Amino acid sequence: MNPAPAQEALHAPLVVEFPFTRSLGPVQSAFLTGLRERTVLGVRAGDGRVLVPPAEYDPVTAEEIRDLAEVGQTGTVTTWSWNPAPRRGQPLARPFAWVLVRLDGADSALLHALDAPGPDAVRTGMRVRIRWAAERKGEITDIACFEPHEGPEGGAEAGADGPGERAQPRAHDGQFPGEAVTGITAPARLDYVYTPGRAQTRYLNALAGHHTLGERCPECRKVYVPPRGACPTCGVATDEQVEVGPSGTVTSFCIVNIKAKNLDIEVPYVYGHIALDGAGLALHGRIAGLPYDQVRMGLRVEPVWAEGGRYPDHYRPTGEPDADYDTYKELL
Amino acid sequence: MNGTVSKEPVAVVGIGQTRHVAARRDVSIAGLVREAAVRALEDAGLTWADIDAVVIGKAPDFFEGVMMPELYLADALGAVGKPMLRVHTAGSVGGSTALVASNLVSARVHRTVLTLAFEKQSESNAMWGLSLPVPFQQPLLAGAGGFFAPHVRAYMHRTAAPDHIGSLVAFKDRRNALKNPYAHLHEEDITLEKVRASPMLWDPIRYSETCPSSDGACAMVLTDREGAGRAPHPPAWVHGGAMRSEPTLFAGKDAVSPRAGSDCAADVYRQAGITDPRREIDAVEMYVPFSWYEPMWLENLGFAEEGEGWKLTESGATELDGDLPVNPSGGVLSTNPIGASGMLRFAEAALQVRGQAGDHQVEGARKALGHAYGGGSQFFSMWLVGAEPPAS
Amino acid sequence: MTSPREVAVVAFAQTDHVRATDGLSEVEMLLPVLRDVLGQTGMAAGEIDFTCSGSSDYLAGRAFSFTMALDGVGAWPPISESHVEMDGAWALYEAWVKILTGEAETALVYSFGKSSAGDLPEVLTRQLDPYYVAPLWPDSVSLAALQARALIDAGDTDERALAGIAARSRESARDNSHAQLRGSEPVDTLLRGDHLAQPLHTHDVAPVTDGAAAVVLAAGDTARRLSDNPAWIRGMDHRIEAHSLGVRDLTDSPSTRLAAERAGLFDEAAGPPDTAELHAPFTSQEVVLRKALRLGDGDHTAVNPSGGALAANPVMAAGLIRIGEAAARISAGASRRAVAHATSGPCLQQNLVAVLEATPAGAATGTAAGTAAAADGSEGDPE
């Protein structure tokens, strides 16, 4: 037997990224539309508390809540932490404080950033006010951040910047000039490092030399291609390497007539399951080298490699007679 | 298994679902699940305070881009201060979720449980979520249908089924969907000719034989015998439920008729005292994402002998007025919010035995099977519900 | 609820937890743990009645990541199996319920997490409200620091006390060969270090860990057959709180308190636990949990003798490990009554509490059954 050699496991970056499109529902729509118009809305819960940001459902009674109320744009820090090294996507690029702020007139707190020179300038109970983003489009980031604010609760220094502060929330119909914001786009990117593991590393390294190495289960003796580290029926590690192929048998297939977004293959083409000689199960690949409508179950094929490809580009007929159904029916 | 433990009978007393569409742009994720949950509560004549625990299921979190979204949904589902469990068993998850909820009642851990499954696929794109590129792995060269099409071909080869069976299933399910106001696809002008003329995407699977991508949610209220006694509408009783799993890919796997599926069905029938499923079961809601899976599952679930499933379909037995109606709701072929699709099967089976399926009601249905599967035909969950309480 | 049927932890295994595995896939990391835990019971996977696992696609960065882990179980012939997208402690809960139904006598529970794959504090931002909070990308350390500040403001703790928790935990981990961080600098040295997110220092935060764990549960006589010293689950319950941090009192954990009450932790006849394994990835969260579980600051309860999550924090497995560690201590004769806790979500949003006990002396054949309390205080309906 050929015990599997120890090899440095492969790693590669894996980026998971998508711009999610989120519809809002009426309460969240009113809140985010309000931010665009420099107005902060809360919602009145069953116990009379005004929740900011507004919840769609009462956290105590679970009832749907819809009664909107406008609250102030100044508030009080209820707790905070200092963020010395801001990360991608966070509200400010320079060190800042995360704060929970209870806006004047609200009974719950809103999470956001506070722009402050350092942790010594931040304390629980301090007064802060909203700093609006220059361009607002109906997102939570329309609040650029909070900033320290000198002034009493409910003070009357509204100025030109907005409706100003009010300690008492005022009923609001949620209507604003212009089109209501009904959805947001939430781009999200996460960066991972992926390792396929030791068994697949062995397989991939051999594949680079155009050898297909399966691994045999010590219990059931089946040969796994590609090996995944464990025999899935016996639950034990596979570590005896067995070269399989290069030829194999088409066990089943479909003719693809729809062009996939991320693939540069002309349709129609054939996507097949191929049991390489000596393997305990089929793998998949494209079948070419003959008209697509002549591909059949039992066709004998061999891999065709393209320059620089990690996997065979496709499989083509070997010219051997077709395999008998009984020889591959267990491999379907 | 243990003579000293007697299970509490479990009743389905509330069922709710959303009107399934490609994109529900008028609600948040919370608003979507809430709609199904409120309808289930109303059906059960209960309020949030009557619910002891919430069991929620959905397929991969990447679909909505929210990790463990049950945390954010706790408020919307009235779960604050209560136990909340989140199940994920790939495509079978809607069924598995209902079974986890059912176990909470049958073990007498809770009396009344809300269970719910959802997917809001319009938040992203199903194909993106299903095929995140993983380094080193050979890309799937064929899309979702291409993954299953070779198995369909293997079935056709094995059974010598004629080519047109798949189109019969699609035509039937789409017509059934016209009788289901909640179904996603309402193709009023559907004809068998149109199905047969639709483009062949992954030969042998045609466009009209594939499932849509939907936003939707489904919820049920499960309760004990006493709760069932108070319910305003007739309950459906759980006579048997089981999950079975086998590995994704393995030497000797039968992708056409996976053993996990037949074992799961056998377990459910044993619990329910079913010896001849074809005769004793009045309606079936099975997970058929591509039309050919109807004849395949008919065999796998014991409704037809091996190789004979397509004959049952061809005979018309699985039509709404046949003697074994399959997917009277229109099934997954007409509605597919992935994470909720399994629970919809379970819920539709329950609606049938409650006599509340409306225009797609199977006359006199007393016992119905709900079936779900997922992964590479490896995860199965099923339940059998009846109009009468189980014999104990 | 308290358990109406005798169910015990009869085996527990875990990896040697590390910052990043040496190129192992999830299944390669998990496989030895599964072999170990099954080996302790002498059972094959096929002899187990029910299997349940816990893991997260977001942690792995791949959809359906749990499906490949099933390869390590040996699920053939097909098995009765389920999965929660939660910490393995909740998988154990599902398995416990399955045994309570009478449909299973034994269950295998496992969970795994390779936190090293991504940037953990950033990944966890995806758990937050997707409309109002997630777009701000507030990392989990910053959120825990908000909670710590609230505790300090309330007079519940201070930075020195928190450093004391860190030092005690990691010193305890010297005796735990599986732990990632074993041993600690003294508190004065720790306090001279920089803040990670004021008021939290680096020492207040759990390490980033790759690891896996598995537990076997068994009922009644089966448990007695499989283990000389089963750790009986006397009760288990879990509760969730509102999601928004701005509506919660971050200095308290009513969900933990309620779960503990339902699990029978506060039964006066039983007395306080001698051991507590708390899933507190931040020192400040131990303060909240001690209060909710009424553990006080006294010596009657050894808190996190394993070192806790501060010594090794494989996300998705760290809660299950708390139950496993508590059970192992009972099985080793070092504890009579232990409480194990698991958490999920930002700032302790969701919490699970399990109460485990040794078989009382002279009660080895079944009289140790817990009270057969009916569900949620109902009268039950015996057949």
UniProtKB/TrEMBL annotation, chain A:
Question: Where is the region Disordered?
Answer: 148-178
What residue stretches are annotated with the ChsH2 rubredoxin-like zinc ribbon domain? 210-238
Annotated Basic and acidic residues bias: 163-173
Q: Which residues cross the membrane?
A: none
- What residue stretches are annotated with the ChsH2 C-terminal OB-fold domain? 70-132, 242-305
InterPro entries reported for this sequence: ChsH2_C (IPR002878), ChsH2_Znr (IPR022002), NA-bd_OB-fold (IPR012340), Thioester_dehydratase-like (IPR052513)
Question: Which regions form coiled coils?
Answer: none
Q: What is this protein called?
A: OB-fold domain-containing protein
Query: What high-level taxonomic lineage is stated for the organism?
Result: Bacteria, Bacillati, Actinomycetota, Actinomycetes, Kitasatosporales
From TrEMBL, chain C:
Gene3D superfamilies given in the database record: 3.40.47.10
UniProt protein name: Thiolase domain-containing protein
Question: What is the species listed in this Swiss-Prot or TrEMBL entry?
Answer: Streptomyces iconiensis
